[in-house]
Each structure stands twice: as structure tokens, then as C-alpha cells.
Specification:
By secondary structure, the chain is α+β, with helices and mostly antiparallel strands. The protein is 37% helix and 16% strand. The termini are far apart.
Length: 161
């Protein structure tokens, strides 16, 4: 059995040095070793989107990425996006539109929605649905989530939310 491996990465703008087992996934590393529990673990197969984070600016399913693969990279979690203010308007729209119920999928939804808005500032409802299609929500039926993302896009482009 292989022992721990040293990794050095940036998480939410802060340098992190840690020892991880070669088989430990990024989601478990973030949650268990760094206490960043906003990254949820749902299916552990990359299907549900609850564990979505950004690695070097691209969203990934952290349950499918080994922590050792992030050596030298920048990882951003929902805590980092929240603390920086990057998604404060999106979070407010989710609250206002009742786009969250149990809240389990919400961090992954916010990460994915923000990714869409970064790449497509004025998406239509079909683009929103398509981009969010890899994130499961068992509570809302998605309509309120699409409404919240659309309202945020409109507000960011100078319209009323």
C-alpha cells in the first residue's frame, strides 16, 4: 500500500500544503482535511453535480478528481466564491426565487450557474437548462433555478431582476 503524497495547491486563494493518500478524491480532501463542507458528495459517480468545484478556472466533479491531480493548481469551492462576493447576486436570486429547498444541490448549482454566466453573460432559458442539465435537484423541479439564473443574467446586464 502506498503512503501519503505531498501536494501543494491553492484553495480559494490560499496556498495549501497537505499529505493525501493517492486514491483520495478531491471532494473528500476538501471536506475532510480542509473543512470545506459546501462541496457536497451525492452520487460519487460524477452524475449529480453536488460536488462541483473549479480547478484552474474550469468546473469539475470533485468526486472524480484525485486530490493528487490538483498539484500546483488553483481550486475554488462555493465557500471561495461566496466569500469573494462573486456569486452574492446569484445567491440572492436563488433565495428570492425560492430556487433552493433542501439546499443539498445548491452549492453545485451555484458553481455551475456562475460558470455559465462567466462564459455566456446573456443566456436564454434553453442555454441555462442545458448548462445545468448535469446537476440534479430532487426538490425544486428546476423552474425556480432557471428563473434565478435568468434574473441574475438580466440584472448583471443592466436589466431589472
Amino acid at each position: 500500500m502506498t503512503g501519503p503524497v505531498a501536494i501543494d495547491l491553492t484553495v480559494n486563494g490560499e496556498r495549501v500544503e497537505a499529505q493525501v493518500l493517492p486514491r483520495q478524491n478531491l471532494a473528500d480532501f476538501l471536506r475532510e482535511q480542509l473543512g470545506l463542507t459546501g462541496t457536497h458528495v451525492g452520487c460519487e459517480h460524477g452524475v449529480c453535480g453536488a460536488c462541483t468545484v473549479r480547478v484552474d478556472g474550469e468546473i469539475v466533479r470533485s468526486c472524480l478528481v484525485l486530490a493528487v491531480q490538483t498539484q500546483g493548481m488553483a481550486v475554488e469551492t462555493i465557500e471561495g466564491l461566496s466569500d469573494s462576493g462573486e456569486v452574492v447576486d446569484l445567491q440572492a436570486a436563488f433565495r428570492h426565487r425560492n430556487a433552493l429547498q433542501c439546499g443539498y444541490c445548491t452549492p453545485g448549482m451555484l458553481m455551475t450557474a456562475q460558470d455559465l454566466l462567466r462564459h455566456e453573460p446573456a443566456p436564454d432559458r434553453e442555454q441555462i437548462r442545458e448548462h445545468l442539465s448535469g446537476n440534479y435537484c430532487r426538490c425544486t423541479g428546476y423552474h425556480a433555478i432557471v428563473d434565478a439564473v435568468a434574473a441574475t443574467a438580466l440584472a448583471r446586464n443592466g436589466g431589472a431582476s
